[in-house]
């Protein structure tokens, strides 16, 4: 049986969508193929790589990708994780289902207080996004990795 194909979409594809891709792959990768992209791709934020690494999820090889690179792919589920991406891309052609769950942009604050925000958003994405993907795709929840 082929794996369900999921896209996590944000604006810059630097933090939230990258963390979402990492969590879904880490916890559901045996049943889901996941990608992330941005409506205006930039770079993978070093703090996103750092805090996901602290949680055992390696984003060091990730790159920021634009939605244009995914044209022609039929996703089973597209999840927009920021309001800007939802507004810029309210319908993703070929997607069987599109849903929205916004998370705070951890990159909006820099300096001494930024790392705790990245950690909090990382944890919020894990707690909300993985069960959402599981539910929307009709996957058994008893085998979600911890």
N-to-C terminal Cα separation, in Å?
A: 24 Å
Question: The biggest beta sheet, please?
Answer: 4 strands, parallel
Please count the beta strands (DSSP E, at least 2 residues each).
Answer: 4
Order of helices and strands: EHEHEHEH
Folded structure, characterized:
There is one protein chain. This protein has 146 residues and is α/β, with parallel strands linked by helices. It has one domain: Rossmann fold. It is 36% helix and 14% strand. It has 4 helices and 4 strands; from the N terminus they run βαβαβαβα. Strand 3, helix 3 and strand 4 (98-100) form a beta-alpha-beta unit. The two termini are 24 Å apart.
Write the layout of secondary structure elements.
Blueprint: E1 4-10, H1 16-28, E2 32-38, H2 46-54, E3 77-80, H3 83-88, E4 98-100, H4 114-137
Parallel strand pairs: 1-2, 1-3, 3-4
